[in-house]
Design brief:
The protein is built from four helices and no strands. It is mainly α. It has two domains: 1-37, no CATH class; 39-80.
């Protein structure tokens, strides 16, 4: 949808290369984002009763581990 909006007028979109590349037709131009820190936010919605289930807690714990590791890696990269 973002590609359609960009193609229709004077607009820009920031999207992952893997998403944008197949859509870059009909004169659309792709430019890399240089010198900007890009982040992704992941929200988890769950019913309170679902949070009591062990498999749900396992998935949430795994997501937290991955997010913490990514944050740590980002902080290390920013200081080097």
């Amino acid at each position: 949808m973002a590609a359609q909006i960009v193609r229709a007028g004077d607009a820009i979109a920031v999207m992952p290369r893997t998403t944008g590349a197949p859509l870059a037709v009909d004169g659309m131009v792709l430019r890399p984002v240089v010198g900007a820190t890009l982040v992704r936010h992941v929200d988890v919605l769950a019913r309170p009763d679902a949070l009591a289930q062990a498999p749900v807690r396992v998935v949430l714990a795994a997501l937290k581990r991955v997010a913490d590791a990514a944050a740590d890696a980002g902080e290390r990269a920013a200081t080097t």
